[in-house]
Amino acid sequence: MTPRVALSIxxxxxxxxxxIQADMRTFAALGVxxxxxVTCVTAQNTTEVRAxxxxxxxxxAEQVAAVLDDLxxxxxxxxxxxxxAMVKQVAALAERLPVLVVDPxxxxxxxxxxxxxxxxxxxxxxxxxxxxxxxPNLLEAAALLEEDLRSLGDARRAARxxxxxxxxxxxxxxxxxxxxxxxxxxxDGSDLWEIDRPRVRTRNTHGSGCSxxxxxxxxxxxxxxxxxxxxxxxxxxxxxxxxxxxWHLGAGPGPLDxxxxxxxx
Length: 265
Hints:
By secondary structure, the protein is α/β, with parallel strands linked by helices. It has helices at 19-29, 57-68, 84-93, 117-127, 138-145, 152-162, 208-221, 226-243; strands at residues 5-13, 33-44, 49-54, 73-78, 100-102, 133-134, 169-171, 181-187, 192-198.
């Protein structure tokens, strides 16, 4: 059987843990053929980002067009876009994308901002209204809403408020102030609901957000409804976190076990 096709529009991680690399592993693990448009090239490892080279937005558009002109893309996702011009370029391409999952990579895990106010504004006004699903973590939701968010109650309010900008919003629970539980809060335009799991005790979380949004896109490409796509994506990432929990790859937060290697290594 010919596989379904998904497209990642995101940055490259030279350390292999996040970005395009995590997206391609996620697509493959879920049985979807992955294609890509690289928005930036980074020099990074598990401890630091040393350099970032942004690809010209016109070249990103050329990559996307080359894929769409030849391959039947069923769903797409975005990762690190980085600049206002890049966000606007992706928004201009969105009408050719049947399904679009937007992972607004705005804040590093350290809390450092990865973009500026004009880019945040472009996400809010240009790209979010065109998305199928938007997946900010709590720090990114805080940046988008210009508020301090910490608790589950904060996440619930944020999901509803961001739901004024996008059809479906998932505020991811990895940064909640609960050491025992990780709760993803979902606003689907009519209902607020949650995906609640025990927190995996690991420092190896690099690429978890990328993998989650890629898994949603893969599941939507496979024909699942939005709720099932979100729930199965959450299950996939939870298993990948658990599988790689004991890995020692690099001196910093390491990658996830996308392929279920836990029993083999």
